[in-house]
Amino acid sequence: MPRSSSSGDELRASLEARRDLGPDYEDSLVEGFLEKMDQEIDRRVDDRVAARVRKESPAIRPSVDAGQRLALAIISLTLGVPGTIAISFSDLSGPFLGFVLVLLWVGILGVNASFTLGRRH
């Protein structure tokens, strides 16, 4: 991993600086090294969190799908309920009336089912 060698380089540089500067600057060098390591750890955690978010994000699209489902539900009810009322009060009689009502609702259910199944693929 290139980053671990970078951490090793930082440690070697701190030790070399301690040799050059002497023990009087040891505390400052250690604090500087630890601060750089904290920043490196924070960066790695941020990278992992961002990678996890990127993996989860494509599956989440509630605004578009929810809006389309709502529109389809409104259109289905707008066509289905008045259509049922209109067919019920028409001059159709007996089994033909039932057949037309079933045909209307099977068509509406078919459109809804094909929409739902199509969105899953």
Would you kindly provide a written description of the structure presented here, covering whatever features stand out?
This protein is an all-alpha fold and 121 residues long. Helix 1 packs antiparallel against helix 2 and helix 3 packs antiparallel against helix 4. The model has no long low-confidence stretch (mean pLDDT 81).
Strand content: under 5%
The 3D shape can be described as rod-shaped
- Per DSSP E runs of 2 or more residues, the count of β-strands stands at 0
Largest sheet: none
The proportion of residues forming helix, as a percent range, comes to over 70%
Question: Compute the gyration radius: what is it?
Answer: 34 Å
Gap between N and C termini:
38 Å
Question: How many DSSP helices?
Answer: 4
Q: Could you give the order of the helices and strands?
A: HHHH
pLDDT averaged residue by residue: 81
Low-pLDDT windows of residues = none
The chain-level structural class is: mainly alpha
